[in-house]
Amino acid sequence: MNKYSTDVRVFIVLQMARCDENVKAVQRAWQEKFHNKNWPNKRTMARLYAKFKRTGSVEDDKKAMATATATVVTDGAKQVVDFFAADLTRSVRRAAEMLRIKRTSLQRIMKELELSPYKIQVTQPLNEDHTQRRSEFEQLMLEKLQTGEIDVKKIWFSDEAYFTLDGHLNKQNYRYWGRERPEITVVRSLHPKNFLCGVQYPRMVCLALFSSMEL
Predict the structure, then answer these.
(1) pTM
(2) Using CA atoms, how far apart are residues 183 and 187, in angstroms rounded to an integer?
């Protein structure tokens, strides 16, 4: 069926369904539409229609290719499982290099194993009274702003980033491979390097690099 376009295949399938798989009737419909007798033979039409009922697609059956792929998956699955069991944070590129498997094959295997990449989320532990304390702080600040006790133009807005000497965690490129979302705790290094950035109205910026030991 390689020489037939998708539109032609759809036409054959529709006619096979309308004509109750009567090939002679399909051939007549073909001649009326295309004005020639270059239709597929009876066996080809029957195989195409059977495939459509089985898969819902008129495209070439990739069963043979899937069989070959299945062999690769079977042979490589145990290697992949053992590899990521040793370190769930390794990248696909690194795994492909070390296991000597094509990246596309590795991705297929990981899909079969239902392995998905999860991005680490950095959070802070919250106590039961944190919600109430936050609400109280918000009310207090709102009152100070309304009474003029706090000048909005003199508020510093700051943020900080941590740079650990051991490269322990960077959530932007840190991935965890697993079959479900992990519930794990990552312990942070005791003395990371901090980078603090502060901004105050109108454009003043303060930058500082310091160690947590200096705080």
Answers:
(1) 0.34
(2) 13
